[in-house]
């Protein structure tokens, strides 16, 4: 069964913690992204862990291997259960990330999952600033196959390509899917969106949902409705 991850895209810890508190028991995972982490730092991760959540630290590292190694080491020391890098950084960067992960874990600590972002779900065909315009799903699949070869634990991908990635990389290779939109929700800046049911049907292991929950009139009810839709997929 897939897990729901709620994206806490807030400008301060107070707002993020208030939302997390209201979702206790409705979603097992919280995601800390760039806006919140840049404003508040590692205390947001430890605060959410103390509240009993699993934490995905979504900082999408993309730099030279040595810098990414250190960044992942620090991310792991924050206590995050899942961290990520960009698959486009290539083999040496990916392997440096795995080294940083191993260096950051305390003895006895379960190593966090290290995922690779394939293509951002906000990018459709034509959004890549390149004259050659590869199909986003093909590119995501290629990058996922490489990420698996480099020893990463899985990828961040749209629900549109999760099924093909599972076939190519094996069922244990994690697919985490943002760009989730219940049928009635506004896509906003996202482009390659799927419903919660479609994402689960296509094999996604984790569904990341932000605004359809955090901007709902009743966020807890919105989260529970998404979980119910996920559970209905056999
Ligand atoms: O509000 P919404 O549901 O669109 O939020 C999606 C979250 O997932 C955002 O925090 C965004 O940064 C993140 N994300 C994404 N696409 C990726 C990786 C992460 O939308 N490929």
UniProtKB/TrEMBL annotation:
CDD domains: OMP_decarboxylase_like (cd04725). InterPro entries: Aldolase_TIM (IPR013785), OMPdecase (IPR014732), OMPdecase_AS (IPR018089), OMPdecase_bac (IPR047596), OMPdeCOase_dom (IPR001754), RibuloseP-bd_barrel (IPR011060). Residues 3-226 form the Orotidine 5'-phosphate decarboxylase domain. It comes from the Bacteria. Substrate binds at residues 9, 31, 58-67, 121, 181, 190, 210-211. SUPFAM superfamilies: Ribulose-phoshate binding barrel. Pathway: Pyrimidine metabolism; UMP biosynthesis via de novo pathway; UMP from orotate: step 2/2. The active site is at residue 60. Its EC number is 4.1.1.23. Keywords: Decarboxylase, Lyase, Pyrimidine biosynthesis. It catalyses: orotidine 5'-phosphate + H(+) = UMP + CO2. Catalyzes the decarboxylation of orotidine 5'-monophosphate (OMP) to uridine 5'-monophosphate (UMP). Belongs to the OMP decarboxylase family. Type 1 subfamily. Homodimer. This is Orotidine 5'-phosphate decarboxylase. It comes from Pseudodesulfovibrio nedwellii.
């Amino acid at each position: 069964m897939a897990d729901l991850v709620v994206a806490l895209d807030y400008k301060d810890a107070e707002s993020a913690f208030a939302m997390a508190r209201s979702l206790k028991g409705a979603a097992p995972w919280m995601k800390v992204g760039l806006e919140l982490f840049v404003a508040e730092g590692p205390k947001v991760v430890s605060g959410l862990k103390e509240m009993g959540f699993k934490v995905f630290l979504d900082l999408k590292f993309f730099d030279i291997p040595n810098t990414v190694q250190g960044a992942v080491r620090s991310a792991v020391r924050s206590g995050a259960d899942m961290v990520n890098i960009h698959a486009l950084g290539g083999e040496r960067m990916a392997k440096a990330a795995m080294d940083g992960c191993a260096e950051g874990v305390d003895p006895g600590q379960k190593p966090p999952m290290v995922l690779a972002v394939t293509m951002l779900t906000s990018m459709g065909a034509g959004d890549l600033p390149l004259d050659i315009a590869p199909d986003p799903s093909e590119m995501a699949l290629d990058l996922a196959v490489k990420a698996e070869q480099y020893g990463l634990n899985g990828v961040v991908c749209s629900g549109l390509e999760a099924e093909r990635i599972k076939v190519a990389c094996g069922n244990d290779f994690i697919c985490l899917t943002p760009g989730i939109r219940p049928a009635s929700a506004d896509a906003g800046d996202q482009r390659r969106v799927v419903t919660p049911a479609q994402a689960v049907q296509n094999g996604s292991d984790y569904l990341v949902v932000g605004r359809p929950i955090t901007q709902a009139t009743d966020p807890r009810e919105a989260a529970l409705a998404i979980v119910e839709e996920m559970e209905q997929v056999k």
